[in-house]
């Protein structure tokens, strides 16, 4: 079963509709979740272990504008390989399952509205499988690490983000976080969710698009409104 799940990581990209149909009975989410966590953890640790921390601290301080001596000392104390390893590791190991769990709760509620009767565990698996496009960005991050000579800014790790591809905003911009988080893998995940929802619920394309897009529209819409009106 684990072998089939490994093949399905490729199948969900190449043949998403029949793959989601097959996964409806047994999503087997732990295999793709483990792959997502371990590969993200590996690339993150590789990035931190090769980072030129003297350059990195100056880069981060430069984005803060004028910094008081005590604030500079606090930031330098925090930006160490050890703290970076722990914070990045916690983000990969705990953050990925937590986000999947929260999104699965949304799909559980949406499924009840659509009258599907699908339980929370299967929706958790559904969310994990729709997250597979994130794996495709990792080789590009590895390429950045190899060619950077240890001087790779965190914002340049994701080569498919809106900021890296088009906007090139500095970290001091209020739109920086928004543009860095919105990337092509998110759009791909939405497309997979639409295909998966059609396979699992049999509902219309319009209904599936609405359910798949709604959480992104709410999160990024509220985020954009906050920046636009409050800075």
Q: Which helices and strands appear, and what pairs or packs with what?
A:
Blueprint: H1 2-14, H2 16-23, H3 30-50, H4 53-62, H5 69-78, H6 81-114, H7 120-130, H8 133-148, H9 162-167, H10 176-181, H11 184-201, H12 205-230
Structure description:
With 231 residues, the chain is mostly helical. The protein contains twelve helices and no strands. It has helices spanning 2-14, 16-23, 30-50, 53-62, 69-78, 81-114, 120-130, 133-148, 162-167, 176-181, 184-201, 205-230. Helix 1 packs antiparallel against helix 2 and helix 3 runs antiparallel to helix 6. The N and C termini lie far apart (50 Å).
> Could you list the spans in which at least 5 consecutive residues all have pLDDT below 50?
none
Helix content: over 70%
Elements, N to C (H/E): HHHHHHHHHHHH
Radius of gyration: 20 Å
Number of strands: 0
Strand content: under 5%
User: Sheet bearing the most strands, described?
Assistant: none
Dominant shape:
globular
Classify the secondary structure makeup into a structural class.
Answer: mainly alpha
The number of helices is: 12
Mean pLDDT: 91
**N-C termini distance:** 50 Å
